[in-house]
Design goal:
Blueprint: H1 3-28, H2 41-54, H3 57-60, H4 70-83, H5 85-88, H6 97-100, H7 112-115, H8 119-128, H9 143-158, H10 164-173, H11 178-192
Helix pairs in contact: 4-9, 4-10, 8-9
Amino acid sequence: MKALPWFLCGVLATGAAFILSAAAFILFSANGFAASSRPGPLETWLATHARAAAIPASARNLANPIPDTAETLSEARAHWADHCASCHAADGSGDTPLGRHTWPPAPDMRQPPTQRQTDGELFFTIQNGVRFTAMPAWATGAAHDAHDSWKLVRLIRHLPALTADEKADILRQTPRTPAELQEEIEEQKFLNGDKE
């Protein structure tokens, strides 16, 4: 019986701490939870550390089994174009309508916060996604998924040195909407001097 009051005090203290944390979280976020506004410093710090804590230690030490070859990068560019470029951009900058308008926004994969991650951390993120973000989990359990994800890790490492030709290769392979295709046709007609 003597433990019950202490238990209730613990429950109340935990509840109060949660409410105060949520209030501070909202106060430090200028516009609440709107994806269109920049997060405050507390929210940014919490999200960054939560992401790091979500990756198991065993995943951090995984080594990339895929060789770093021109063929690997070519295959990875095709996969990136089809699965990643809509949010992360052809060059990894995250500068796309989808990438800019989610929270957190798609990171610039060429910059140190991504490049400092281990290959295992990048692989885990691709395979399992990141909760409460726009990053989906791409693993389906098929062996080729893991193989493709390891190739993407090779490409992510290469993004800071991506050439203009490699970027153009990704852009050529990136799926386009019918409206985008029609716009390209009209633009080409104009450039060719067609008056129709």
